[in-house]
Amino acid sequence: MSRAAAPLAGLVAPVPGLSLRRLRIDTYQEPVAYLRSDCPVCRSEGFESRSRIEVWLGERHIVATLNVVHGDWIDVDQLGLSEAAWCALGGSEGAPLRVAHAQPVASMSAVRAKIYGRPLGIDAAQAIVRDVVDGRYSDIELAALITACSGDRMDVAETIALTRAMVAVGQRLHWNSELVVDKHCVGGLPGNRTTLLVVPIVAACGLTIPKTSSRAITSPAGTADTMETLAPVALDLPAMRRVVEREGGCIAWGGAVSLSPADDVLIRVERPLGLDSDGMMVASVLSKKIAAGSTHVVIDIPVGRTAKVRSQQAAHALAHRLDAVGAALGINVSVILSDGSQPVGHGVGPALEAWDVLAVLQNQVGAPDDLRQRALLLAGRVLELGRKAAPGDGHALARSVLDSGAAWRKLQAICEAQGGMRTPPHAAYTHVLTALHQGRLIAIDNRRLARLAKLAGAPKSPAAGLVLHAPLGAMLSAGQPLLTLHAESPGELAYALAYAESQDNIFSIQEA
Amino acid sequence: MSRAAAPLAGLVAPVPGLSLRRLRIDTYQEPVAYLRSDCPVCRSEGFESRSRIEVWLGERHIVATLNVVHGDWIDVDQLGLSEAAWCALGGSEGAPLRVAHAQPVASMSAVRAKIYGRPLGIDAAQAIVRDVVDGRYSDIELAALITACSGDRMDVAETIALTRAMVAVGQRLHWNSELVVDKHCVGGLPGNRTTLLVVPIVAACGLTIPKTSSRAITSPAGTADTMETLAPVALDLPAMRRVVEREGGCIAWGGAVSLSPADDVLIRVERPLGLDSDGMMVASVLSKKIAAGSTHVVIDIPVGRTAKVRSQQAAHALAHRLDAVGAALGINVSVILSDGSQPVGHGVGPALEAWDVLAVLQNQVGAPDDLRQRALLLAGRVLELGRKAAPGDGHALARSVLDSGAAWRKLQAICEAQGGMRTPPHAAYTHVLTALHQGRLIAIDNRRLARLAKLAGAPKSPAAGLVLHAPLGAMLSAGQPLLTLHAESPGELAYALAYAESQDNIFSIQEA
Prior knowledge:
Chains A, B: GO terms for molecular function: 1,4-alpha-oligoglucan phosphorylase activity; thymidine phosphorylase activity. The structure is a homodimer. By secondary structure, chain A is an alpha/beta fold. Chain A folds into 4 domains: 18-101, Barwin-like endoglucanases; 108-168, Transferase, Pyrimidine Nucleoside Phosphorylase, Chain A, domain 3 (Up-down Bundle), CATH 1.20.970.10; 181-256 and 274-417, Pyrimidine Nucleoside Phosphorylase, Chain A, domain 2; 429-510, Pyrimidine nucleoside phosphorylase-like, C-terminal domain (Aldehyde Oxidoreductase, domain 3), CATH 3.90.1170. Chain A is built from 19 helices and 20 strands. Chain A has a 6-stranded mixed beta barrel with strand order 2-7-4-6-5-8. A 4-stranded antiparallel sheet of chain A has the order 14-17-19-15. In chain A, strands 9-12-13 form a 3-stranded parallel sheet, sandwiched between helices. Chain A is globular. In chain A, 59% of the residues are buried. Strand 3 (25-26) of chain A pairs antiparallel with strand 6 (60-69) of chain B, so a sheet runs across the interface.
């Protein structure tokens, strides 16, 4: 449009180089960069706090949110990086860096269009997901995206577009078997650790089940946390492939293989917002299953007042969406609605849940029968879906494999293949909580129970958590044990106890 | 529900005290706290990065987002605070602090309900606005709130509820006059500095106009920035009251009087998201006018392809909403749709816009006539609304007050009352950009022009910005000056020049 009327020579102020400093600040997952306010680059580039900047190290770069530092605890020629930024960029202390304004995120215009009511098409979904995976979205932009796609604002067609986009942006595993099965639980039920039973049962029957699981995000234990008390779970893809080719199944941590890189980013904002809409959940679950190469998947939806899905109506709507999106993307989905009114098994916490699993596999007296029955139901359905049992015969086949010890031998073999079987740890500090008065146990608040286990240290302290002593419906006498808290330190035990005493409705006991 | 079966004595780990450290990190407005990962409180409380924590100093407290530090540049017994957190909490270096988990924000359930499709009622709006003002919302929660209320998702009834809630949470000024006028421009037009003309014109006619204005947020100059080159603007409420009682009007920075504390918080996320929906905008504007005690307000909506409001249809929808919400809240709103196709006046940047204002007030030859005409139009409407002129006669009255020098004397008096009149600064470095070829100037991109002025240093460097030499429609010869860049440092000038040369469509010149 125009040209400077005179040459620029002499006008360009020399900008001294910046060097990298790792500040070891954990900003959760958002990459943050720190620059002194009196740093020449800050002024010449017009950077301000909250500017989105590109940080270049040779040919590599990341996009980070800037925090301007007015203090002198960082040097004027240093660019500090948060842990997320440091890990994403690589590099070493003191490495020379360049910085620039980040281009505005082009696909945010598609997000704004969605906010203003335009349906999300496949092109928009792909542009958005690509930018999300490339780390171009700030946390507040992610929050806007997630909000715009929550509630009833994403229909089935949009969910299909988003799922396709999330599949397209990641890798996709292929297996030698034509039929690859999987199971997934929509979550929200403490102790519901059926995966560690279903995988060995169906693998023992000859099916291929390359299972990836998550660590806990808001719960006291994820399946990966529980499995980790029995064997290593941080398998990379070649290791995972070796385990599955040898044993038919694995239970690996999904974070290490990153099957849905978009989901890994979205989740960091979804969780703190407490937004868990059907559309985003279906796209997240099915994109991961498709990326894992699954052809048939059984999805367990626990329904209960304090579970994630709270009504039969909500469960049916979710089931319908799972079916429709699965059909569109060529994956066979079978949904089971299960009882979500109380925790499953006795233990809540990584090691305590592993002990429950071992009791069921080893057919111990006193093994939690609810966990066993749920696992048999799910494994039976998987076996039918995987054509190892005729419709209606899956449950019996699953039971025989469990009762014979074949499933227990298979879990041991899988643990060995994943790097060696371990014995789950025991907590050093325990404390029994008892009923204040006699009566019938009529309700358990899953959410507060989960919080109690977390306060005791789970999942960071793998032996921490709690063990339940009374099921729903039990008649209790005053002073009868309700649960035992387990902790690895006295401070954590005290903290959990204080919480338990401040809450009067984790257990509802109706006097007779 | 239960009680510990044994006393807790001896279980509680002693937690050493934390002391305050000001880290001078500008995280923009979100309060952030920094704790070492090996700090005992971190572990005993189960704090993680992104935890929302309460920081207590005696009886005062704030809610902050936690960043966990794995380095040793902060002591293990220190709690670091970002600037926003430091300013909100008060206190001094080394002051003893206590911390706790923040309660989940209760009103976020109302935000989720809105996301899931429930209309925003007055109770929900009040609970939300109260929590927002109390600093309980994290930035991602604010982003979710704003997204949920954007697009066509907030109807007139919800806008009324939100506006009422925003008025209720702040203070409300009262004046001795029954009739208090105001003017507001929806913005998006560089150089549109009519306030500095309208206020002295209508105050000179005897109306009460306690005007508060914002500083630039995304633009090269806000009205407060421009006024600040002429007089102090950071007046507190008693000072503002003294000025208005003496001179009938003022031009103060709204941030210092905080008439809409909710808006001050929301804006920090609205702007970076680029979400500027009618509902939020109307609630923001009218809540501030009502809080300022205004009874009659003229609202200027510039309409143009690169202005904030881009079509007549959009302008009419916005005007309708302003009318309806104004009527519900008992404030008389009069809307003017104006030409938003090009910048107003010659200068863009705080001081350069002030020089334009002075030229108009002093009736200088070469004073920008477009700025003069817009100001007369708006001032005329305000005078009619304020019953100083009959319908149709306002423009003539405004012109006579401007031509007679009465408006110029009134601005000088207002500046003196605000703390003393100043002469706007001149930039040390200038550079002329010229047309590459002959032709007619058929379009100016307001957004890129604003960016160019910002790169030259505006508004932080008050003398920086640019002066336009050719209006839309002008016939240009090759090499004819288009604009002059003004900067306070050679680096900023070079930076703006580099941007200008990289853009080929700030000015569209059609060859004849």
